[in-house]
Amino acid sequence: MGKYNADVVFENEDFTTFDFVKAEFEECRFINCNFSNTNLSDAAFSECEFENCDLSMAQLRNTAFQNVNFKNCKLIGLPFDECNSFLLSFNFDSCILSFSSFHKLKIKNTSFIKCKMEEVDFSAANLSKTIFSESDLPGAIFDNTILEEANFSSAYNFSIDPDLNNIKKAKFSIQNVSGLLDKFNIIIE
After folding, report:
1. Entry's InterPro entries (predicted)?
2. pLDDT by residue (tens digit) across 15-30?
3. Which of 9, 51, 101, 125 lies at a CB distance of 3.0 to 4.6 Å from 121, suitable for a disulfide?
């Protein structure tokens, strides 16, 4: 593997000691790879897929993710808010994102499908038209977050204060609307 990699499949690799500084990956697939505690700073991933990978606690200072998909990945404690924001776009399917931060990011149209997102920080982020399909959000932080047209209709365990967030035209189901009323400390039966 060199500093520039295109259309390569990496399978069952342990990248914990690899130097990713200035490394570029275009249209690559990573399957069952270990990146935990790896320094991915200044690396660039474009049109890449990560499947069954562990990126927990990786460093992401100025990391570029452009149209990247994560499926069945462990992404615990990732500072996505330190990524390169230019053309930043990714989607998550069946991932564990607990204790990660998306603080102040503009990530419109992102999909979080069947994700575990305990105490994820979305404060001051723009999540317009984002989908939280069947995602579990206990303790997730929504503070001054733009959630216009976001879809929470099948999400659960979230608490969003409508007075502190922009939820114009966001979608909720009758089963999870109580997550909008938590600040009132009322009992809904």
Report:
1. 5peptide_repeat, PA_immunity-related
2. 999 889 899 999 999 9
3. 101
